[in-house]
Structures are given as structure tokens and as C-alpha cells.
Amino acid sequence: MPSENPTPVIEFSDVSFHAGQTQVLRGLTLQVAKGETLILLGRSGSGKTTTLKLINALVSPSSGEVLVNGATHREVDVIRLRRGIGYVIQEVGLFPHFTVARNIGLVPKIEGWKEDRVQARVQELLHLVGLEAEIAARYPHQLSGGQRQRVGVARALAADPEILLMDEPFGALDPLTRDELQREFLALRQRLNKTVVFVTHDLHEALRLGSRIALMEAGKLVTVLTPQEFVKSDDPWAAAYVRAFGDGLESIANRGSSWT
User: Fold this and answer.
1) Domains of the chain
2) Pairing relation of β-strands 37-42 and 212-217?
């Protein structure tokens, strides 16, 4: 659950972003509280992934300010900023020539952790994400899609970051594996109390995993609602999503973190 601390961990203040002549984001003002899971929901091209990339300075705003823990990217060492933020993407992005252990331990090793501490952290995280210890010696091509995604989550958590960014991390998985990983994500969220920004185009996933849902359309923020508010909203864009995804949404929204 979000902290009572009024200072946001992440803040967008009237942020716009242009890619060449194309305006990808316009006038985005949004805050993310400590410990919450904010879902960025929207269609392809709505600006969700760009919003995520602005947080860890993979791209810079054309105008406006992005602040992480009260500081803009100009005021911090961007490399240090990125090492303090876990990042999970749909394609996982594991290094194919690294073992699982080496993939997970990469950031701690860069940070100067001793080897025994790195290996202990690797084993701790494999257990945390539901993988057997012997997986550590395998290479990414020897794993299933679900296993690779779990390793991706473990790698993102390796240096114990305060913030976790997740860009449709379960979107390419089969329905059963996706359901399983969503349940594991909820259990991890409760145990670790990370601040999470999670991109999806799937309303079921948004209602199931989010503490709040930020709905985006054509580069603009439409509304920010809790799952319970979203399914009852009279906002036309939110209502269109509810109609498109059909029955049973209120039950998903009300169950929330009991999905474990």
C-alpha cells in the first residue's frame, strides 16, 4: 500500500516528449507514491513505454520535469539513478552468453559486492521468484519463457532497488504461466514493498495488480483511478475499456491483493 508520506517517489510535472516531429507525450502531470503499484494502461502508441523510460532517464523530456525522490535527472548521476531502479521488459533482455547466476548478479557485482555476497543474493532471489537453485548454472536459451521472465524479475531486484519499472513483462507468456506470474508478483509486492510502475494494455491485469490505474490515450493522461473506481467510472475512455473487456471486472477489482 502507498505510504502516508506526502512526498512522491516519482513525479511528472507538465511533461511533454517529442520524437522528431511526433509528439508522443503532452502535458503529463502525475505522481507515484512510495510503495504503490501504479499501472500505466493504454493502447499501443498511447505513450506508456515512453513514460516509463522517462523515469530512469532512457529518454529526456522535451519540456517539463521528471523527478525521482525529489531530484531531476540533471541533479543526479544518471548511471547511479539507473542502478537504483529495477527494469523488467517483455523480451526479458538477458545476456545470452551469461549464466542465470551471472545475469542476476551483474548489477551487484558492478556495485562492488564481494563474490560470496553476490552468490548468496542470487540464491536468495531464485528462491524468491520460485526457481530451483540449479537453474543458476543454466543459460537463457535453456529456460522456458516463464523461467526467463522470473530471472528477469530476479535481476531487476538484485541490488534491492526502491523502484521497479515493468514494461508488459508477462504479455508474451501463455495464459497459465501469465496467471502464475501475476500471482507471484502480488506476493512479492506484499513482501518487498517496492514502488512499482507497470505498463500493460490488459485491463484484467491492471485491475488485478494495480493500486491505481493511470489511463493514457494518444499521449495524454486521461484519468487516474483505483481499480474499484475504474470499473464504475463514467469517464468515456474508462467506460470503453470496461465494455471491451466484458463481465467479471468488478470482482477482479474488488479482490485486489487477495489474488495470492
Assistant:
1) 1-84+162-245 (3.40.50.300), 95-160 (no CATH)
2) parallel
Beta-strand runs (E) in the chain: 10-19, 22-32, 37-42, 63-68, 71-72, 85-89, 163-167, 195-200, 212-217, 220-225
Cα–Cα nearest to 259, from 37, 33, 2:
37
pTM, entire model: 0.90
| Tens-binned pLDDT, residue by residue, of the chain (260 aa) | 444 555 799 999 999 999 988 999 999 999 999 999 999 999 999 999 999 999 999 999 999 999 999 999 999 999 989 988 999 887 668 899 999 999 999 989 998 999 999 999 999 999 988 899 999 999 999 999 889 988 999 999 998 899 999 999 887 788 888 898 898 889 888 888 899 999 999 999 999 999 999 999 999 999 999 999 999 999 999 999 999 987 778 888 887 544 43
Which grid cell is 79? Answer: 548511471
